[in-house]
Amino acid sequence: ATEQEFIRGFLMIPTQDLSCRLSKMTRRWPGSLVSDLDEYFAICSRTISRGISHFPSRDPYWLALPKSIFWNFQTPGSERTTSEKFLGDILWAQYCVFLHVRIFDDILDGHVQKRSLPLASEMFLSEAKMVLRRHFRPWSQFWKSFERYISLTMNGITVADKLQHSPETPRESFEKVHANVCSVFKIGTTAFCHLAGKTQCLRMLNKIMDHLAIISHLLDDLTDAPEDLQRSRSNSAVAILRSQLYKQPGIALDKLIEMRYSNSRTLAAFSKIFQEHVSAALKSAETLGIPDIVEYVRSYRVFVDSLPVYLHSQHLKQILPEFIEVEL
Q1: How many other CB atoms sit within 10 Å of the CB of residue 324?
Q2: Does residue 14 register a pLDDT over 70?
Q3: CA 326 to CA 328: how far, in whole Å?
Q4: For position 55, what pLDDT does the model report?
């Protein structure tokens, strides 16, 4: 599917706090706007349901890493209730920025026809800025990072669309742009590092998040490979499969895509790439030296190690509907 479906699952409300905040915000909106937004969420949920569930059984990285940074850099003696409210503010602002970008992109691609949704998109961005202004002065360096992340995401979506129209686009080009597309998910960690005076940690944190984003994107692309090929579009998974053609002569690309969950050489190729990225993320996490984050990235390694078996089970489920699911 197209790039606007990036990071399948992030549109779903991941925590009760975010759900409550969304409900409270939209309660003030006109009824027609709320109805259009509900319909939009329902469409996205149906799209999400056909994808691979690709997170370990913990928070997604864009929630887990900001939480770890916040609690590790917490000032001793801080009141927990106040701290949790502050943590919720930053995560809510990050989520609002994501909704702004996601809705805007769907409108741009023509996947959304509701005339009221551009207004919703702008209202989410305004909400994010209003919440962040409670904690950052207008002259704070944080705002430069904030604007840069939004710009990287918006430009990344545009560039990714162009790359998908070229069958010759290599996997590495997709990976770079996928990391850019997910830049808005760095707002939380960046906010807490700025507030704690620990901006020197951002280099390693951003590396970790880039590698985890690429893993998630590649799994999405694996799901979308048949549809993208049918629409004469490429993606990172298709690029990897195309590179396998010379190693497996006599197999056409469409057949190789059909066999992507059952062909041992293909699964090995994907497994190697997943391992490269999780190893790079773990190296950066160990350099950063925050135990919670090291443990979290190690959980991704366990997850990645189990992927070949899990992906093969997807193929078996297609041919044997009664096949027992493999739990990650």
Answers
A1: 9
A2: no
A3: 6
A4: 52
Q: Helix crossing, 291-305 with 61-72: angle to 10°?
A: 160
d(CA 128, CA 189): 15
C-alpha span between 149 and 141 (Å, rounded): 13
Q: Is the dihedral of CA 161, 164, 169, 172 positive or negative?
A: positive
Residue 174's nearest CA partner among 208, 222, 105, 111 is: 222
Token pair of 219 as six digits: 């799994």
Residue 325 has pLDDT above 70, yes or no: no
For residue 225, what pLDDT is reported?
A: 84
Contact 218, 237 (CB under 8 A): yes
How distant, in Å, are the alpha carbons of 155, 169, 275, 322 from that of 261? 32, 22, 17, 17
- Confidence band, pLDDT 50/70/90 cuts, at residue 53: very low
Angle (CA) 223-215-161 rounded to 5° is 65
C-alpha–C-alpha distance, residues 31 and 88, integer Å: 26
At 254 the pLDDT is: 80
Using CA atoms, how far apart are residues 18 and 282, in angstroms rounded to an integer? Answer: 29
Distance CA 307, CA 197 (A): 38
Helices (H), 12-139: 16-26, 31-49, 61-72, 80-108, 117-132
Q: Record the pTM.
A: 0.84
Burial of 240 (0-12, 13-18, 19+ CB in 10 A): buried
